Amino acid sequence: MNEVRAGCCVVGGGPAGMMAAMLFARAGVRTVLLEKHADFLRDFRGDTIHPSTLEVMDELGLLESFLLRPHQEVTTLAGNLGDTPITVADFTHLPTRCKFVAFMPQWEFLNFLAEEAKRFPAFDLRTRARAEDLLWENGRIAGVRAATPDGPLEVRAGLTLGADGRDSIVRRLAKLDVIELGAPMDVLWLRLTKRDDDPHETFGYVRDGRIMALIDRGAYWQCAYVISKGTLDELHCRGLDEFRRQISAIVPFLADRVGEIASWDDAKLLTVRVNRLRRWYAPGLLCIGDAAHAMSPIGGVGINLAVQDAIAAANMLAAQALRGDVNARDLRAVQRRREPAARLTQSLQLFIQSRIIGKVLSSGRAPLLHRIPALVRWLPFLPRIPGRLVGLGLRPEHVLNLSVR
Ligand SMILES: Cc1cc2nc3c(=O)[nH]c(=O)nc-3n(C[C@H](O)[C@H](O)[C@H](O)COP(=O)(O)OP(=O)(O)OC[C@H]3O[C@@H](n4cnc5c(N)ncnc54)[C@H](O)[C@@H]3O)c2cc1C
């Protein structure tokens, strides 16, 4: 059995865990980050780096080098409601240096953070290390036992961060209570070739009770086809030809390439789940990101909330972790700071899920949605409100300790 001692043990190298590990290590806390995969090259898991996160990259002096990585800069999110174009969110008036969302493959973002973090001697990334159990000492979580290719590894730490996503084993082992909030939809993800003469600016399409979103990933479109929860079998029964026909009907310019969907294996199901922990912490442990609050894909805000949690955790706990003295009051303070933003964002997502998405999928029409074009004609500044909610979030965090130890 290998054993290492650290000030902080982070489980999960997603946006929350990677950002947290980098910031704790930057503050001089010896930090071990356990990631079960060998690298960050995984399936599509969201691409959106929001202006609030870009602001933090700027504060850390990393923005210029970060923006050298392949990305697209999107200043407005637009949609097509039938044949009517609508602007859903406008980021151009945000009080931030970057007035756009950077669409960047998540592995680029994570690789970038990992490379930057490796410059801090206190940062210790262990890939192919799967957390399997919690270590307990005197009624307190004192680290994690992980399986690695070299055998079991025990990481003993004064603070453990559960950043292992919506299927978090850490929160399960710590017996933290999950409140399920529900979602009326699931999402099928697929790729279709992008051509030079395709329209670029449109993101969401709603037509005849069907919804699709398209994310520009350079050579191809990452497509999200929204279905009513639990109806995948029905879709399969209707057959692949009918699925291809539906996609062509919603987004007509894709009709010439829907044949690229060769089998149902090309359309991967994301089961949408919205939930949050009643208590994000236990003695010695704090959950952040999706492990604390799994978000609906609406607004594409999961990555940014995860990053904001990580910044708050580092701001509020690094000094105590350095002293080896993190107590329950400190952990509760992080939940108190971050929970209102997560709860309010989930409430907005639930409202949109039930008042718009659920209604479009069940009856083909959501009165609220169909009023938007007229409202925007009347009040052209309206898209700035979702622009602010999505781009900045409800409680943007800033890195407080900018000096590196
Ligand atoms: C298909 C899809 C599309 C999405 N689109 C968007 C989008 O456009 N914009 C957006 O903001 N959000 C999007 N999301 C949500 C977003 O991916 C999450 O909200 C965000 O990644 C949460 O970050 P996290 O670090 O908390 O968790 P995760 O990103 O889930 O990271 C958890 C990490 O923990 C690791 N891990 C898990 N268990 C263990 C273990 N036992 N031991 C060690 N490591 C472990 C995992 O391998 C993973 O790297 C999408 C999600 C999916 C699935």
The profile of the biggest β sheet is:
8 strands, mixed
CATH architecture group name of the largest domain: 3-Layer(bba) Sandwich
| Mean pLDDT over all positions | 93
CATH C-level class of the largest domain is Alpha Beta
The CATH homologous superfamily name of the largest domain equals FAD/NAD(P)-binding domain
Query: What is the share of helical residues?
Result: 25-40%
Distance between the termini: 31 Å
Task: Tell me the fraction of residues in β-strands, as a range.
Answer: 25-35%
The molecules bound to the chains, other than polymers, are: flavin-adenine dinucleotide
The CATH topology annotation of the largest domain reads as FAD/NAD(P)-binding domain
Counting DSSP H or I runs of 4 or more residues, the number of helices is 12
Number of separate domains: 2
Give unreliable regions as ranges.
none
Give the structural class.
alpha+beta
Radius of gyration of CA atoms, rounded to a whole number: 22 Å
